[in-house]
Design brief:
By secondary structure, this protein is an alpha/beta fold. The protein has 15 helices and 8 strands. The protein has helices at about 20-30, 40-45, 55-60, 70-80, 85-90, 105-115, 130-135, 145-150, 150-155, 170-200, 205-210, 220-225, 240-255, 265-275, 285-295; strands spanning about 10-15, 35, 50, 65, 95, 120-125, 135-140, 160-165.
């Protein structure tokens, strides 16, 4: 640790993709020292962090280490790799995993790191890219309230609500349940809105009806008021990553012994989006995938020259690759 780094407050950040980069920027803007590592070295500087070449170097130098990675396979590689966190972690260090990951893997990693005296906190984040930029994410953490209180200085820079869900793994479990409802609402609302368009309804009024009635959900409130104006809120969670989250949910429920009777809808919808070329675009494009099968329907007026082709053209925003990449 260099002399310029204040004791007990150096933050390491591994994975500076769509969400990780935004969260890291909130932390650096809050005046904290952040050492950043990503497969794309330019991302650290873009987030205001000091670029660090390896996981091992970040681990050795940071007091609190944040992870924002695509899935448990990548998290496991970063933690258990030959030159990873497990090899270089030290007693008293805290690892905060912001990824969307399999709870069973999370519990195993918690135990392995605890043997080295490293605290591993699973802390799934919800709210999307816009909430990350505003610093209003919701955190669901698998750890005691005392630990969350200890980290309040950090969470307060990018989250407005932090919930202690209980034992290790419970934070990631809650995140998977939330993400499944998010995926279901988005896919179902996309289908309804395409149907409304084909029925000749005024889609703004239809949203008013849904939001005043029992069909109201996050997608009707926050996504489709933009989508009907040809604003897909690019730069957020892709269809491929939404599909990954639903698959994780299905596997989690299988391990819990709970039937997954409602997973087929979002699996079919986001699988369709991937098959039609929207996999690496924001998950809101599932609307276009359903519209394609309905005869090329778009929710907005296309006489303005809007792009209606599947998977065509560049995407604006921070990025369209994996949500968080080591």
């Amino acid at each position: 640790m260099t002399g310029a780094e204040p004791a007990g407050r150096v933050v390491g950040f591994i994975g500076l993709g769509n969400m990780g980069g935004r969260i890291a920027r909130r932390i650096t803007d809050g005046g904290e020292v952040v050492l950043g590592h990503d497969r794309d070295p330019a991302r650290a500087a873009a987030a205001g962090a000091t670029p660090v070449a390896s996981v091992a170097d970040v681990t050795r130098r940071a007091d609190v280490l944040l992870l924002s990675l695509p899935d448990s396979t990548v998290v496991e590689a970063v933690v258990e790799g030959a030159d990873g966190i497990l090899a270089h972690g030290r007693p008293g260090q805290i690892v905060v995993d912001l990824s969307t990951a399999a709870p069973a893997s999370t519990i195993r990693l918690h135990r392995a790191l605890a043997e080295r005296g490293v605290t591993y906190l699973d802390a799934g984040v919800s709210g999307g890219a816009a909430a990350a930029e505003r610093g209003t994410l919701t955190v669901t953490a698998g750890g005691p309230q005392r630990l969350l209180d200890e980290l309040a200085w950090l969470f307060g820079l990018f989250a407005s609500q932090v919930f202690s869900m209980g034992t290790p793994g419970s934070g990631h479990s809650a995140k998977l349940l939330n993400n499944f409802l998010n995926a279901s609402a988005l896919a179902a609302t996309a289908e309804v809105m395409v149907a409304g368009r084909k029925a000749g309804l005024d889609l703004a009024k239809l949203l008013d009806v849904l939001n005043a009635g029992s069909g109201v959900n996050f997608a009707t409130l926050n996504r489709f008021p933009h989508i009907i104006r040809d604003d897909y809120l690019e730069g957020g969670l892709t269809s491929d990553l939404m599909m990954k989250d639903v698959v994780l949910y299905v596997e989690h429920l299988r391990q819990l012994g709970v039937p997954t009777l409602n997973a087929s809808g979002p699996l079919a919808s986001f699988g369709l989006a991937a098959g039609l070329g929207y996999g690496q675009r924001i998950s809101n494009r599932v609307t276009d995938a359903i519209g394609d099968l309905a005869g090329g329907v778009r929710l907005y007026d296309t006489d303005r020259g809007a792009d209606t082709g599947a998977g065509s053209g560049a995407v604006t925003g921070i990025g369209t690759d994996a949500e968080e990449t080591a």
